[in-house]
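Let's see one such:

===
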Amino acid sequence: MKQLLLENIPHDARIAVYHGDFQWSNLLYSRKAELLAVIDWELCGIGPTLNDLGWICAFSDPEAWAHTQPTRMPHGDELEAWYREGYGEVEGNVRWFKALAVANSGSSAASTSCCTGGGSAMTLTGRR
C-alpha cells in the first residue's frame, strides 16, 4: 500500500493548518449539539487539509472495521458529502487521503510520523 500511495501522491490539495487526529473523541459538544471545542492538537501541522477529512472519514466507515456496534455518528461518505457541500469543489484526491489514514492506523508510530511531518508525511504528501 505504501508504494501505491507514493506513486499516486496528490499535489493539488489545499495547504493550511490541519489537526492531525480529527475524530469524534476530540470534538466537544454542548447538550444542544453545538460544537464547543476541538481538543488534542499535539499532532497538528501545516499540510494538506484533506489529512483531517481522510482521517475522520476512514474512521467513520463501519465497513472498514471489525466492530459491529451501532453508532449514531455519520458514515464517512456522508461526512465527505457535507465537506463538499460546505467547501464546494475539493482540491485533491479524497480517496488517497482516506487510504493514507487507513495505512497509517496500523501503528501509532506510523500515525505520529504521518501527522506531524516527521519524514513520511512530507514524503507522502509531496510537501516540504
In short: The two ends are 22 Å apart (CA to CA). The chain has six helices and four strands.
